[in-house]
Amino acid sequence: MSVPFNKVVLAGREFDYIRQSIDDSIAGNGRFTQLCQASLEQRFAPARVLLTTSCTTALEMSALLTSIGPGDEVIMPSFTFTSTANAFVLRGAVPVFVDIRPDTQNIDEALIEAAITPRTRAICVVHYAGVACEMDATLDIASRHGLAVIEDAAQAIGSTYRGKALGTFGNLAALSFHETKNIVAGEGGALIINDLALAERAEIIWEKGTNRVAFKRGMVDKYTWVDIGSSFLPSDITAAFLYSQLESMDAIIADRRRIWDRYQAGLARLEASGQLQRPVIPPHCEGNGHIYYILLENLDARRHWAKELAAAGVDAFMHYVPLHSSPAGRRLGRTAGPMPVTDATSDRLLRLPLFPGLTDAQVDHVVDALDTIARRT
Ligand SMILES: *Cc1c(COP(=O)(O)O)cnc(C)c1O
C-alpha cells in the first residue's frame, strides 16, 4: 500500500463555479470574491475580510496597515515559514525570534516579554499545525506594552481557543488557501481585519492604493490614488474555486479531524513505550486536523524513521529549518535568547500523511509501519 503525503480533494462545485465566473467577470472583487468574503465574515464576525492572492500577501498587508517601518522590531517564532518574517522585513523591520513551547511548538508566551525593546511594534504569532498559541497571555502582554498582534493563521482555519475562532484574536490575521492547507484554492489567502478602524485603509491598500472599493459601493463618484498599496486581490476564478471549498469547510475539517484522531489513538502505545511523542492539543483548544506530526528522539532517529516509512510506501516529511539559523534569518533578524526547543523540534519533527479522504486502512498502514520500525529499532 502506498500513502501519499497530501492530495488536493475537490469539494464538488469548483468547475461549475469557475464556469459561472468566466461567464460573469474574472477580475478581482467579483461575485465569487464577495461570496467568499461574506462566508468568511460570518465565521469571523464581526471582522471585515478581504481575499488576497496568498497568506504571504495578507501578512504584507498587515505590515503596511500597522505602519511598521525601518528599524522597528516584530516578535515572532523562528519555527515558521519565511513569509511570517518577510512581510515585516520588506518594510525594513527586524524579526526578533523567540523560542517555542515543547508541547505545541508555538511561540513560548513566557519568553515574549523579555524580548520587548523600545523598538518593538508588534507580536506575530503562528498557530502551528492549527493549534492555538496562548492568546490570553499574548494579548495581555501586547496591551500592556501597546503592541499590535498579528495572527499568522495560515494553518488555523476552523480551530478555536477557549471556544473562539483562531483569526479573531489579533488586530489582524492572515489565512492561507495554498494547496497544502485545509481549504485550498491553489494559491490564495485572506486578511481578517478585527480592528475595524483599519478596514477602510485595508480596502485602499488592497486595490493598488485607490478608493475603488468605495467607488464600487457608490460611495464616491470617481476613484483615484489615495494611499500606498498594491494588487493584493485574487482573480475571481480563484475565488470561484475557493467558494466551493468554503461551502464544504465543515465536512472537510471533520474528515481531517477523523484522521488526526485515528493517528492519535493508534500511536498511544508507541508514546507510552517511549519511542515517540505525539502532538499535544491543550484542553482549552480545538484543532482542525491540519498537520499530524510525531517527535522522534533526535535528527538521526527522524532520518531513520522517515527512510523506513518511505520503504513501507509512506511519505513523511520534516518541517521548518528554523528562520534564525537560515542564511537570510541570520542576516536580517536576531534571536531574543537561546533557541533550544526550536532547534530540537526542527530536528525531531516528522509529519505524517493527512488529507481528506485518507482511509482508515491507510492510516492503520502508517501506524503499523511505525510499530514495525519501533520493534526493529
Ligand atoms: C503556508 C504558510 C504561509 C504562506 O502561505 P501562502 O498562502 O502560501 O502565502 C505563511 N505562514 C505559515 C505559518 C504557513 O504555514
From TrEMBL:
Pfam families: DegT_DnrJ_EryC1 (PF01041). One of its GO terms (molecular function) is dTDP-4-amino-4,6-dideoxygalactose transaminase activity. Its EC number is 2.6.1.59. The keyword Transmembrane helix does not apply. The keyword Nucleotide-binding does not apply. The active site is at K181. Keywords: Aminotransferase, Pyridoxal phosphate, Transferase. CDD domains: AHBA_syn (cd00616). Gene3D superfamilies: Type I PLP-dependent aspartate aminotransferase-like (Major domain) (3.40.640.10). The modification N6-(pyridoxal phosphate)lysine is found at K181. GO terms for biological process: polysaccharide biosynthetic process. It is an enzyme of class 2 (transferase). Belongs to the DegT/DnrJ/EryC1 family. This is dTDP-4-amino-4,6-dideoxygalactose transaminase. It comes from Ancylobacter tetraedralis. The lineage of its organism: Bacteria, Pseudomonadati, Pseudomonadota, Alphaproteobacteria, Hyphomicrobiales.
